[in-house]
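Thread: Modeling a multi-component assembly for a lab meeting

Hi all, long-time lurker, first post. My supervisor asked me to bring a structural picture of a complex we are working on to next week's group meeting, and I have zero experience with this. I have the sequence lines for every component (1017 residues in total). Could someone generate the structure of the whole assembly? Inputs are pasted exactly as I received them:
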Amino acid sequence: MKRVTWGIIFVVAVIFCFITVQSVFAQTKKGPIKIGVVAEKTGGQAAYGYSHEKTIKAAAARINKTGGIAGRQIKIFVEDTESKPPVGALKFRKLVETYGVDFVLDSNNSGVAVACAPIAKELKTPYFPSSSATELSGDKGNRYVFPSCPLVRGEAKGAAKYAIKHIGKKWVTVVANYAWGWSCEEDFKKYFTEEGGTVLATIRVPMGTSDWLPYLKGKIPKEAEGVFFANWGSDFLSFIRDLYAVRPDIKKFGANYALAGQDIKKLGPEAEGLYCLTPYPTRLEGLNTKSNIAFRKLINIDAEGKEGGTGTPFVLAYNWAMWEAMYTLKAGIEKSGWQGKEDTPKLIKALEGMQFKESIEFPQGDNQIRAEDHQRAIAGLYVEQVVKGELKVAGKIPGEDMVYPPLVDYSKEGF
Amino acid sequence: MEKKPFLSFFVLSSLLILVLLGFVLPSGVRSLVIQMMIFSIFAMGYDFSFGFTNQCSLGHSIFFGAGAYGAILFILKFKLGVILSLVIGMGIGFLLAVILGLICVRLTEAYFVIVTAIIASVFHLLAMDMTWLTGSDDGLTVTLPTISFGFTELSLYQPMVNYYFVLFFLILTYLVLNKMLKAPLGKIFVSIRENEKRTNFLGYNVFGYKLIAFVVSGVFGALAGGLYALTLRYASADYFSFYWSILPIVWCLIGGLGTLVGCWIGVMLMSLFQYYVSAWFTYYLLVFGILILVILGVSRKGMLGYLLSLRSR
Amino acid sequence: MPEWLTTVLFLLVNGLVWGLIIALIAVGLSLIFGVMGIVNMAHGDIYMIGAVIALTLFPYLGNFWLGLLIVPLIIAAVAIPVERLVLRPYEGHYSVTMIATTGISFILQQVILATYGGIPKQMVNPWPVTFNLFGVAYEGYRFLIAAISILILMSLWVFLYKTSYGILIRASIQDRDMASAMGIDVSRVLMTTFVLGSILAAVGGVLAAPVTQVFYLMGNDVVLLAFIVVIIGGLGSLAGTLVAALGLSSLEGVMSSVLTPIQSKAGILVVMIIILMFRPRGLFGEREG
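Re: Modeling a multi-component assembly
Sure thing. I ran the full set together rather than chain by chain. Output:
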């Protein structure tokens, strides 16, 4: 029996030697700049992770072809968060501790981003999430976190302004029953009321509900003109189907994500006239600039927003933010002269307040990083609308409509 | 019994290796090993109930989550110390286990399995809903205060401190559970596992003993949850999900049911698996599912159990 | 009629329609549980696969109803070897079957994720007619689901209670050793039951596909509810399962008119615990679990 025990111990020792060598090797090697990605490759948000990974890799390939960052090539390491915050947090650590990455990008899942934020600080690794949780530029963020996309509060503020001006004064909100949904509901209500409108009812529906009739029937007051909703994926499909059965006349305005990855043509009459918020138009005609045409070509999506080759709708909600994050990093590194981990504070200071111009690197438009809370002030939002089964841009929300006072001041924070 | 020396040898050598490794491991591997130690505590507690009294609960995520939130909330809201919060987390686990045990332990095997699963899922739903308390899916992050021992201050943010802190609890758990099993209590457990009716006829309060096993396993599940939350400095409603109820079963089954420490092998395999295989094969759960079937096909008692049974032939 | 009354009535009817689909799935689960002693954690995934196959085949078949007929055949072809080769050794040992079927569940989910993808898809409504039900433009298709489910359940009842083979199955639920001792080919009965149970779940999936979203994780919620129904109804009792399915769905529907969704779900749990307190084997439980 001793032999068996020794056998087991031997195998374990070999495995650990292997792991040790690999991680030590990873840390001592200098040369390429290592960037980690915590993406949702499986789980409820698998479609987002797929889109983000592809976009980030495309950016890395392009940067490497043109000489890399400050002359150094980029190496990308992708780990799966499984759409679960604890797994995401673990993978974040793994990327930094085992692979020795210098920076981490992504997660669309607000739970993952919020869980990783303190780890970013602990391990002194700048983090660029693609989640829109307002708290990432608030009490849950820190000086190492740079949220790369518009946050819920800003989106809701812009949406409220647009809604009351163009759609109606009496509204109802229907949101998915988790943190993101609640944020959308509370912020929309706050800003909508400030603008002079009324939110007559707030409805929360658990994710994964296939039958929304019990939640909608009898709960929407007759006077309600519009419904602001925050859900996505299969929830969105069930929602519009059942809403149509209960109130076919009501106007619908969706928060970001609602249409991400959906095939508009298959939505049917229940989606007709629906408005949706998006920082990036699904169809090329919504943003027909040279930069955008080039960007879309590089990530291989067609004019309708479908992936070239497979024809499946590509999730375009925030992948552009990851593309821009890569170039943000490049700009920051080259400006601050970052060479290694010791220079990170320099890099962070350089990024705070940095401004970027519309270009192929920043196809969404001009933007800048606000120094106090690291929030990205972008060029504005688009309001897309389903008209006769096709997505058209119905209006734009200017960037100033989204701005709200910062909740924190990171410049007072140490490193 | 030939089993004993082998198991003790296995335990001693493993613990010795763990103590030594703490000094030499690079940080990535160290995090992984800390995680494995925490899971081993969870698994041992679970084996105590499943392996020794045949109570296959599918609701242990309740204890894991309760321990995690107990530790985090008491540090966050009441500003208590690390160890005190951990103990409170265990206390909450204890209370929940008693209540749950009173409802479920008397149910027959199949009902027990399913009812514990259902109750756990409702806990999960409630945790997701009560954001004010749990932060729901986004969870709660905490900054850990240092632990003061009067003569010195220790911070869990130091990886070495974190490592030996967890190792300490692993050893403690093993000693406590092993002691309980060596006592007459343990013998009665085995007797219940082998033939519950007969044990009952012999006059033993089977329900009471099963309840004890269940509650103890719940307490250590809570300890594991608390340590996990402290190590990650984070707790989320996800800790109540079904995934955390299934994992202990898998660990114990792969490693060896009813051996108390066989599950360490299960934990190790599963953790390494998830850590490495998920990097180069996204659908590693597929391989994992096949692995489960293969192991069950070889032996229902798990790997260590299989080895042991080979020995006694 | 006052608004609240129409709402309650609507929710009641809607609940019953869903209850029938849940009944199909739960009855399958109960059979597998009662006859074979398998806690089938993968039951929800069979439901999911039924929906996925129907969705995938639809462009080739052009007809939803054809899919409804073909899916059972495919499921049967897969279920037979799985039962025989994988599950047979563990039958009767609840905990082991639970773990084994969890393994199967992982495999099924990941295979579908890898092939069909992670984006939920919608199935075209095969009967796009609407009726005005208490002020809601209710899909006629949902009534059709109800009708088909009732038809299937009735045929099942006839099969189990009026045919000799059905009696064999029920005998095996009551006491397997005795049945075997009386010369019944238990092996065949086991296989038939597993196939039957799986087909019921898969058909439930096909029927549900046009009204829900087809997605690789869609089985998880369904399986939970199915287990609750089986527990409350009582193991081995099909009538109990039916009553529980319809009752719970209607109850949850009505409760959610006044409570929040989470509270309704928690309410169902309280109901379950109360019932178990008084009847530890469920409402109509026969077999020693």
